[in-house]
Amino acid sequence: MTDPFKVLGLSRDTATQSDVKSAYARLLKVTRPEDDRAAFMELREAFEQARRTVPVQLPIAEAPAKTSVETETGSQLLMPVRRIEWHYDDALNWNFDTSPKGKLSESVIRWMVAGGPDAATRVPAFAEARIALDKHDADAFLDQITEFIFAATDPEERRHTKPVWEPIEGTRPAWLTDDLIRALANDIGLLQVRPMNAYTARSFNTVQALFASVLDRNAAAAPVDVLEKFQHEQNEAYKDDHGSYFDRHQKAWVDLSPVGVAMADLKAAFDANADDMVETCKPILQREDIQALDEFQNLDNQLRFHIAEASGGNSGIRWPTYADWMTPDLLALLDDTFGWTRHFGNHPWERQQYDWLHRVLDRHGALSAAADRERARAREHAQAHASEPRRDARMPGILELFFARPRTLMITYYVYRVVQVIWRLAV
Predict the structure, then answer these.
(1) Domains contained in the chain, number
(2) Are residues 142 and 205 in the same domain?
């Protein structure tokens, strides 16, 4: 294998990231892909390998020079912060920004949509501009180009409705020619950076499938396991002390917390729809490990969402539809446990959900039954306290004191004035 540092004319021991970029930019001006394709690919491979080999060196902090404030101007002391602005292009249906990365992305995207004219001069310029960016911006630039091509292959926008792990067979746009694909992959370096998350991985795979039919087998990038990335992200984001995990085969989160286990048992009881379903669900709702405030509220939220979903609350219909397991006795049990008929929510979406639950409960008479139970409790409370002596309804305190009456206050004032006059005469 050829030493990449010899190709670039650098020393392995003393070369820095800046030296590698400068040497590559210098040699790129005399090594054109249209003149010598093999030499250009060798230079490109040497640059990538050298950049991975040389560690990123942070600048060493230098002692500040002794300067006088009087000799510095305001423009020299206070450098303005460059503001990044965004703008939307209706024709391209894409957002651009004014950062160096954003300007380069906009130039490349407009060049691609135009069919890739003047590739002999534009492509090397794009490659040099990408090298001038730092690694983070360079990777973000490639991701944005990949995302734009992915969006162009999905005009129906199925990517917004399908799960992230389901592949999308993109329709190749007319402007994405074979020559343009080769220039993007070989010269600009598209698909050379592996995606960081599941959503960019799906875009990566869609574009990779289009490029693989044009590029050589050795030059085409390998697809990414999107489901594996999504599984890793879910496990890192939602891991807990109970061992909950994302099941790759079921493509669902397995909640092993007390609330998750209780919810799974309740759903199993709902699906079984046995005659003793109420007797089956009551011990689940009374489990000790879900009686704490956080766990109880969490189970309440999950059950409300489940019943609203099962009765058509999210489908846009006006009146609920009822599954076989939604019996009046079961709904009455849930209402007694969580008090849904007495709650109306604080947020708009929560009020809408409670309004739907009230319709579900009222259809089976559970709402009326709950109101009857509330009235019965009120009567029992009134009867239990009927024998107690009735207290005075007046507010106790200063109003009940004798000197707080108007007449008493006036007499007290006159007595005070008389005593004050006598005291002054005596002194």
Answers:
(1) 3
(2) yes
**pLDDT tens digits along 272-331:** 988 888 999 999 999 999 999 899 999 999 999 999 999 998 888 888 999 889 988 999
Tokens 């602005």 sit at which residue? 85
pTM (two decimals): 0.60
CB 335 within 8 A of CB 370: yes
Q: Which two tokens stand for residue 143?
A: 């991701």
CB neighbour burial string for 263-300, b if at least 16 within 10 angstroms, e if fewer? beebeebbeeeeeebeebbeebbeeeebeeeebeebbb
| Phi, psi of 344, rounded to the nearest 5 degrees | -130, -5
Nearest to 54 by CA among 5, 16, 24, 25: 16
H-run or E-run covering 208: helix 198-212
Q: Tokens 């230079």 identify what position?
A: 43
- Provide the domain limits for residue 145: 83-224
Strand partners, 87: 96
- Is 365 found in the same domain as 313? yes
Amino acid identity of 52? R
Joined tokens for residue 297: 């509220």
**Are residues 215 and 322 part of one domain?**
no
377 and 405, same domain (yes or no): no
Long-range contacts of 8-11 (CB under 8 A, 24+ apart): 8/43, 8/46, 8/47, 8/50, 10/50
Q: Which two tokens stand for residue 213?
A: 């039919």
* CB count in 10 Å sphere of residue 77: 9
Taking the mean position of all CA atoms in its chain, how far away is CA 409? 68
Give me the count of residues in the chain: 427
Rounded to whole angstroms, how far apart are CA atoms 188 and 133? 13
Residue 356 lies in a domain: yes
Q: Which residue in 226, 224, 228 sits closest to 246, CA to CA?
A: 228
Tell me whether residue 329 is in a domain: yes
**Whether the Cβ atoms of residue 283 and residue 333 lie closer than 8 Å to each other:** no
3-state SS assignment for residue 121:
helix
**Residue 294 resides in a domain:** yes
CA distance 209 to 206: 5
| 144-171 confidence digits (pLDDT tens) | 999 999 999 998 889 888 999 999 888 8
End-of-domain residue from the set 224, 244, 273: 224
